[in-house]
Amino acid sequence: MSAEPPFVPETSVLAVASHVVSGNVGNKIAVFALQSMGCDVSAINTVQFMSYGLSIICSNASVKRKGNHTGYKQWKGTRVSAQEITDLWEGLKQSYLDDFDMMLSGYVPGAAAVEAVGNIGKELKHKSKDQKPGSFFWVLDPVMGDNGRLYVAEDVVPAYKNLIQYADLILPNQFEAELLSGVKITDFASLENAVRVLHRDFGVPHIVITSVSLPTLGSSPSPQTTRTMSVVGSTMTSDRHPRLFKITFPVFECYFSGTGDMFAALMVARMREAVTNYDKHSNGNGSLVGKLSWLSPDDVDALDLPLTRAAEKVLASMHEVLDRTCASLTAEMAEKQKDKDLDEKTLHLLKSRASELKLARNLGSLRNPKVEYRAEKM
Amino acid sequence: MSAEPPFVPETSVLAVASHVVSGNVGNKIAVFALQSMGCDVSAINTVQFMSYGLSIICSNASVKRKGNHTGYKQWKGTRVSAQEITDLWEGLKQSYLDDFDMMLSGYVPGAAAVEAVGNIGKELKHKSKDQKPGSFFWVLDPVMGDNGRLYVAEDVVPAYKNLIQYADLILPNQFEAELLSGVKITDFASLENAVRVLHRDFGVPHIVITSVSLPTLGSSPSPQTTRTMSVVGSTMTSDRHPRLFKITFPVFECYFSGTGDMFAALMVARMREAVTNYDKHSNGNGSLVGKLSWLSPDDVDALDLPLTRAAEKVLASMHEVLDRTCASLTAEMAEKQKDKDLDEKTLHLLKSRASELKLARNLGSLRNPKVEYRAEKM
User: Coiled-coil regions in this chain (chains A, B) (predicted)?
Assistant: First the structure.
């Protein structure tokens, strides 16, 4: 038997997000990514969609593409109401199944459901604060929109603004970071300011902005060269100052769906791994795992944060999986179009399907990616 | 990057079964097991239960324990109706997402829903027969009851009797094999007769009876020795005669839940693998993959069937995962009971939780198990 040891210590994760019948997005992708890293996952599915894809060319979308529910331009399915989310949670509690080390919350339909999910996070956080600080860590992906466009109801925005103070790590894209902080991000200074506001005014300990596209951050406007994007992260100091890093990576000129969900799930597992590794090498200089929100001491540099280590590995996995998906997608579409005169709708649907991340066939890329793109200071 | 190659060729599987929020049963276990073997899985969830466990001591339950919905003695959740199953399927078709190589159908609530799922299987089967025989394979787990007790409505039994003629492989337990064949299984002769009826009268090509407990089949009645059980399988010949084999294995004296779902999912992947391997080594003597129901030529011995190879590997994985689950369960319960005076209900709930298969932490056992228990002729 050739069992690789799991990366993380026993980790029980509650994942709340959409479920789809077909396609690797929402909880479907998150649950598999978490399990493949050795986490024990309980999933509350906020939506059972027939499919939930995406179809915008990923020129500026290689890390985060979580929203376009109409990727397949059609869907059938049932929403799970706020009350049902609460019922499922009460059921878990009654059965003593509420003993979670981490929580990942993703796409939630509507403000009432966001609040219902928020109540779960708050309750778990409160319990851990009292009993054992650091024993619970909440990763919140505030799915609201992208590229200047909301794809949730407007009242979801204030619902998230009320909630993020309870989260340990948030994963907004550039547009969502603007919505939450109230700061329009146009250059390095405004980007830093947005992060500062999220740390200072909301007290969010860890932030990763998952898709930053600013000319000064490494994006090359020339069509001749490979375009790049950046992920920007920060773990606050004890007086809530940012410790900023960025990781810049090339953009695939390919369609993808579910990348945001994959990014979020891997961040959960890699954050746990990084904090555990930090403790192992700290030579007894205090444990992060036992500290509220796993906050690194103030003398830890931006490039040495567990958050930085985690983000590097996650991006390495993303890069390998996207690379392979892009290759098989090109082959698949060529095959489908062979000898066939497909209409636009059919072509669109086939492309949406082909854009789904090839996770199950790339387990090695999830578990043992080669880190090529390193974090830099900003 | 240390990527192990996937075991199966690109395989797209439609999995229809229950979903649970917590616990490794139903589609939750099936989807992960299939994905970990490299399959691309689309899942239709027939039930979103809060939990769905099991709590009968597994003295005669080490392979199959799929039914007891009241394992946690309480649940909250929503059933997905027959109409919704049909809607989800129509949605998949409209989006060109109905291109499946295999289907796994498990627990389905009620006769109408069984029919709805059956219509999906029939349609896929029909399409493949016309276009490309062998390009679709349906594994049907006729979940109805166990140990002489039905845990579905009575009209589910005739619904399955009407349906199994369309399946390629069915996975009844001993009781379900009796219900379907109308033959009471009390000894070797009646067991063989039940399999004969299923092949001859229903035309089911492949059968695995997942938990056979007969004294003559290796079960030891003495409490001093390790008790055993058997899995009994057969692939019919072209004139519908059985080719029987059995695999006998020791029984863990431990609680488990979800073993039936794990068994079924692994059978899907391992059957695909075994048939692919058969073709690789057949030296051009015809391909099984291109034959309706992947039926081996008549001169293939019971012990050389792809079904036999598949069942051996599946049982090897089961044995390793159950062994590890049993060990961690014992440790977990000892920990929980330490310093605490737990009431019966709490104890029961904790045991149910601890009985969940430890899949995510035993990926190696799923992918590369050591085959210890070999098939024998009957």
Answer: none
